[in-house]
Design brief:
389 residues, two-stranded antiparallel ribbon, mainly alpha, Growth Hormone, Chain: A
């Protein structure tokens, strides 16, 4: 099946994704701003943000059992419903423990939805087109995320933000229920399997872990990065939108490079762009308008990494039987990185203010660049797995 026909057959799923990602963007980008306006410290913001990724980590371990029992479409509807309810419940109280619990629930639901979406996409794709299909998926993600984030520039009340976010999330269940679409076969439940980092796909695992640190850190703490420089919510939304625009435009370019020249080469290009961007932040101390420009390249270098890790890992498969399990392994490492990053950034930004954000990103880009150039281009097709029950 051609790339165009595959994308056309999945339009209902892509429409659902657009609503979901826009609603999640508004939730993710607003939390740090609201907490800072309520005089919470950088460390507290990092801890509450991490609760989202604790839920994500739990999802990668256990949510596959639900998908295996009720299928993809019903799982999607279930997770969306709990996600939307949890989003709107933020309006009931400003209690930090209550918010941490809600963030935990949202993390479970959101990453459960990602597992449904990504296993669906991988089941429909082959190695020759996988990066471009995942790139199209990422284009929808970042375009929707940018639109959701720009709602922040309207300076709405926190209650209005939660209502709009919940509405967008709940709308995401409509296309899959209204439009006829063939869902993948229900996968058999298995314990989570993670490729052994030194035996199978070390670059895929390293990229997913570092990608989680970078992407999770950005969506959790970039708003604080701008606020600590003395700018308000409007500037936060523009900064995040510029970064997501960079990620949006990068998908087609990096997806093409990845399919033609290899995943490793594409990863190296991304991290090199990201590292040079962070050097500009550090050396030139740019004003906010130059920061918008740099944010574009930060997004370009950062936001392709997870898709590249997933494509690199799936290249090791000789059949489709392990798609869900391999995807869960990559998602587990990504979730682990996303869980740790707000905590680390919270500590760094507590002591180094916004420079802590710059140091964190420069170090990780440099690490992954060095790691990638020392790895071979070919991956062993002998897959040994580490099982975590």
């Amino acid at each position: 099946m051609s790339l165009t026909r595959i994308i056309r057959s999945l339009m209902a799923l892509f429409a659902s994704m657009a609503f979901l990602f826009a609603g999640n963007a508004l939730m993710m980008s607003s939390i740090g701003v609201i907490l800072k306006e309520n005089n919470s410290s950088s460390l507290v913001i990092g801890i509450i943000s991490s609760c989202f990724f604790i839920g994500a980590l739990c999802a990668t371990i256990g949510i596959h059992k639900i998908i295996s029992k009720i299928g993809h479409i019903r799982s999607f509807g279930l997770f969306v419903s709990i996600f939307g309810i949890s989003a709107i419940l933020h309006a009931l109280s400003n209690n930090l423990f209550f918010w941490a619990f809600l963030r935990f629930l949202i993390g479970i639901c959101y990453y459960g939805l990602l597992m449904v979406i990504e296993s669906w996409l991988n089941e429909k794709s082959k190695n020759a087109t996988r990066s471009r299909i995942l790139g199209f998926y990422e284009i929808i993600f970042y375009f929707s995320y940018a639109l959701g984030t720009l709602i922040l520039a309207l300076n709405l009340s926190q209650y209005t933000i939660f209502i709009i976010s919940a509405s967008l999330i709940l709308f995401s269940s409509l296309p899959l229920n209204l439009i006829k679409i063939k869902e993948p076969a229900i996968p058999k439940p298995h314990p989570i399997s993670i490729p052994k980092i030194f035996n199978i796909a070390p670059l895929a695992i390293a990229t997913s872990l570092v990608g989680g640190l970078l992407i999770g850190g950005f969506f959790s703490m970039s708003s604080l990065f701008i606020i600590l420089q003395g700018y308000d919510t409007k500037f936060v939304s523009y900064f995040i939108a510029c970064a997501t625009l960079g990620g949006f435009l990068a998908q087609a370019i990096i997806g093409f490079i990845s399919d033609r020249l290899g995943r490793k080469f594409a990863i190296i290009i991304c991290v090199l762009i990201g590292f040079l961007t962070m050097l500009c932040f550090l050396l030139f101390k740019p004003n906010i308008y130059f920061q918008y420009f740099l944010a574009f390249f930060l997004g370009f270098g950062t936001f392709c990494l997870y898709a590249l890790a997933l494509a690199r890992a799936n290249d090791t498969l000789t059949s489709k039987d392990g798609i869900v399990e391999l995807g869960r392994g990559v998602l587990f490492c990504y979730s682990l990185g996303s869980l740790i990053s707000p905590l680390i950034l919270g500590i760094l930004m507590q002591y180094f203010t916004f420079y802590g954000f710059i140091y964190f990103y420069a170090f990780l880009f440099a690490f992954l660049f060095i790691f990638a150039i020392n790895k071979p281009n070919f991956i062993s097709k002998k897959i040994k797995i580490l099982k975590i029950r």
